[in-house]
Amino acid sequence: MTTAPGGGGEAKRKKRRRRRPKGPTPPNLNNSATPSKNPAAKKAPAKRVYAKRVDEVSAGGLVIDSTGTKGLLIGRRDLKDQSRERLLWSLPKGHIEEGETPEQAAIREVAEETGIQSEIARELGVIDFWFMAGGNRIHKTVHHYLFKEVGGELAPQITEVDDVGWFPLNEIVELLAYPDEKKLIAKSGDLVI
């Protein structure tokens, strides 16, 4: 007498065995312990590729006009802006040439980028940051100075700068596009020369 499934009877169930196909056993394709006969299958561990480190040193700063009420900024087009209308305002600066001191480079770069002749009044500080460019990790150190205008006329260096302008000193921090420059000028205290 057979009982219905779940009917409470204690009938013995027959275990089903899995039948194996007759003939040779197929190779185990998933067994990684089996050595491969394909020499290309053996790969050396991938080497980690590091970007080359490049150190750059620049100098520049904030020029105060002859009235002592305005500061000089350079404007460059924001390449992330689709319209190319937005300018990013920053402090004039550039690379230190071989044989130059940071002070000499700062005076030269300000004149080249803005057309304004200046002299250094005091040091503002150093900004140090990293960025990627051309597949390299760039470590940039920028020496900043406070300058006093002594001559020249506003004339942006057309190959590097889109605009230059004098702005009220109390607006400089707000206008600066880069946080490190904002912080440097904000903590510099009195900008009167």
Automatic annotation (TrEMBL):
Which stretches does UniProt call biased (Basic residues)? Answer: 12-22
All residue ranges annotated as the Nudix hydrolase domain in the record: 54-191
Q: Which InterPro entries match?
A: Nudix_hydrolase, NUDIX_hydrolase-like_dom_sf, NUDIX_hydrolase_CS, NUDIX_hydrolase_dom
> Which GO molecular function annotations are given, in alphabetical order?
hydrolase activity
What are the protein's UniProt keywords?
Answer: Hydrolase
In this chain, the stretch annotated as Disordered covers: 1-49
Q: Does the keyword Hydrolase apply?
A: yes
The family database entries (SUPFAM superfamilies) matched by this protein are listed as: Nudix (SSF55811)
Keyword Hydrolase present in the record's keywords: the answer is yes
What single Pfam family name could you report for this chain, choosing any that match? NUDIX
PANTHER family with a match to the protein in the record: ADP-RIBOSE PYROPHOSPHATASE, DIHYDRONEOPTERIN TRIPHOSPHATE DIPHOSPHATASE
Q: What is this protein called?
A: Unannotated protein
List the source organism: freshwater metagenome
